[in-house]
Amino acid sequence: MRESFGLPILEAMACGVPVITSNTSSMPEVADQAAVYVDPFNFLDIKDKMISILDDGLLQEQMKEKGLKRAADFTWKSSAEQLLSIYELVKY
To answer: Contact, 23 vs 37, CB < 8 A?
Structure first.
């Protein structure tokens, strides 16, 4: 299964968890500047990024703050409003 939007990223951010995610697909668009990006096919890159976050309390706190702000950009209300505007554009 493939996650095409990045909902687990937003869920983690909303919980105040630092996020490491893929630098591919829509993940950079979803996470913006609030995540650390890795090459999903490079296990050494993933390991190094995990260690860097675990070893740096300041980085953890900065990522938590950025993540909470980024997750707040995505609400059910704004999603519904965007979907409604698309319907309005194509209904005629």
So the answer is: yes
Residue 53 is encoded by which pair of tokens?
């976050």
Q: Where are the alpha helices (DSSP H) in 1-92?
A: 7-14, 27-31, 43-54, 57-72, 76-90
CA–CA dist 59, 78 (Å, integer) = 30
Q: What are phi and psi of 37, to 5 degrees?
A: -105, 145
- Say how many C-beta atoms besides its own lie within 10 A of residue 34's C-beta: 23
- Give 75-89 pLDDT, tens digit per residue: 989 989 999 999 999
Measured distance CA(51)–CA(68) in Å, rounded: 22
